[in-house]
Design a protein that fits this description.
Alpha-Beta Plaits; three-stranded antiparallel sheet
């Protein structure tokens, strides 16, 4: 049994009693799942060794995405699958972030905001990639992963995209490669990303809840040439299923850190 489970069993009941009136329902669900993980509460599976005939009893896991005991295998499986799917050629790691002034709004309107982040960032790349000045292909390929906290453990929503260096054109049905060290201009990409994000929120009727100054300050988009995509996939793999509660730091040393569990959207 993990130490995180023991901590939740020791202090979880008191914490839930103290904050039961203000805790989101999904926080309660996470705590209960971790407390019950690999215990008789969730039942057990019985295996029998084919060689010696000795039985082995294993308590079932909770499967909750915030449980540190349940996510490690999923991360390895995701990495294995993505490594098989990677395309040949050079790639880029492109990261879209939003100004800090937007963080409170996004945290209070998560589902709408996260959808807007993905739509705005992906459409910005598609639009610029189709421009003959840059690539001239209207079908770029990419996949993105949303992160909701930064290295300092504060709330910091951003999206990482792994992007092959080029795009297919539906006009001439050929692959248009990008430069080895340049995919799209990040300044133009950030301006377009900001405009499309604003349009997405306008369509939801939530635009008036955001301070107008957000649309006048620079937004940040980072583009990094990474060569073969395997390095970027290996970098992202621990974060795809990385949980909000961890007993290890980035170097693998044990320590106990509680990161903000993603809250339910408040519409």
């Amino acid at each position: 049994m993990g130490a995180i489970n023991d901590i939740f069993r020791s202090y979880g009941p008191e914490y839930m009693e103290r904050y039961k009136d203000s805790m989101p329902c999904n926080h309660l669900k996470v705590i209960r799942a971790i407390v019950n993980c690999r215990t008789q509460t969730l039942g057990a599976t019985l295996y029998q060794c084919q060689q010696c005939g000795k039985p082995h009893l294993f308590f079932r896991s909770c499967g909750n995405r915030h449980c540190p005991s349940c996510q490690n295998q999923k991360a390895h499986q995701w990495l294995h699958n993505q490594m098989k799917r990677q395309m040949p050629g050079h790639h880029f790691l492109i990261t879209f972030t939003v100004p800090q002034q937007l963080h409170p709004f996004i945290r209070s309107n998560q589902r709408t905001s996260y959808n807007a982040l993905f739509t705005a960032s992906s459409q910005a790349m598609i639009t610029l990639a189709a421009d003959p000045k840059y690539i001239g292909g209207d079908l770029p390929g990419f996949f993105g992963i949303l992160h909701t906290w930064g290295r300092q453990l504060h709330y910091h929503p951003h999206i990482h995209y792994i992007v092959p260096g080029g795009a297919i054109s539906t006009q001439d049905h050929t692959w248009h490669p990008s430069h080895l060290h340049f995919f799209l201009p990040v300044k133009a990409l950030s301006i377009l990303f900001r405009a499309k994000f604003r349009d997405e929120l306008k369509n939801t009727g939530l635009l008036d809840k955001i301070s107008p100054e957000v649309w006048d300050i620079p937004w940040n988009v980072n583009s990094q040439a990474v060569g073969n995509s395997s390095h970027s996939i290996q970098y992202l793999a621990p974060y795809v299923f990385r949980v909000a509660i961890s007993k290890q730091d980035r170097q693998g040393r044990e320590q106990y850190r509680i990161l903000p569990i993603q809250e339910a959207p408040q519409q």
